[in-house]
Amino acid sequence: MVIGAFLVALPSAVWVLTMQFTGTAPVMMGDEAEQWTATELRRLSRRGWRVINHVALREDDIDHVLVGPGGAYAVETKWSSSWSTSYGRDRVLEGIEQVRANARLLKLWHPLKQLAITPQPVLVMWGPGLSKLNSQDRVRVVNEVTVVVGSALRPWLRSLDNGVLSEQQISGAWSALEAHLEGRDRADSALHRVPTSVAEAVARLALAVGFAAFGIAALGQILNWTQSMPLTLSLACALTLPAGLLIPSPRWRWMAWGWGAGLGLPSAALLASELVAFIVQPVL
């Protein structure tokens, strides 16, 4: 029982300390808050609204873009455990400026500008204690930004008027956003290709291990053929260089990693042993 409790408690303690010291916990809660906001926004789909998450028109993305009969909205989600402190108040002002900049960027984006759509900035706040605010403080306008408490988001969304945008504007904006995201996803897939299945991941790992074993065998054959450690290491370095050139290629990356590790790691071990022997031999 003691050993079992230790094996369970130790990893849990390490996990908690890691989240606290690295600041991972607030990031995780921020992601969770974005999912809460997205869930509430998706409820408007029954009324002809459309929502898309993580719209990247520059390095930083827009958390949510909402388009429907009542207009277009750039929505930013923020979470904090201490909104009543000076840090929380600064975070509110930071979020207001961020969502204003996002709405301005979205307004100047050519497809929406061509459709004469002016997105409105909205900041959604999540965290403990916000549900206790007065009704007038749960939804307020600060610097032309609508600031909504998470618990008041659903009633506020129900109060949005219709007739602001035509069906042509809605469909045009949605098509432009979808086309933009499809292009971004294709670029991300080309730059950061991931395995499509567990079988493919296992196949890639097996391929890397196989080329690593082949590299080790090749290093042994070179050493047996040359009978010279300096010449062997020189040839190993020369054969490893092409692998470094192939690593950026998604097609050859795993084979290059395996070949480079199979040649490079044993060569480094041989070089270290030679250096140790060179240093220790005079002493002995």
From TrEMBL:
Q: What is this protein called?
A: NERD domain-containing protein
Q: Pfam family of this protein, just one?
A: NERD
Show where the NERD domain sits: 29-125
| Segments crossing the lipid bilayer | 201-219, 231-250, 256-280
Q: What InterPro entries would the database entry show?
A: NERD, Nucleoside_phosphorylase_CS
- The lineage's top-level taxon is Bacteria
What are the recorded GO MF terms, alphabetically? pentosyltransferase activity
The alphabetized UniProt keywords are:
Membrane, Transmembrane, Transmembrane helix
Q: Which organism is it from?
A: Intrasporangium chromatireducens Q5-1
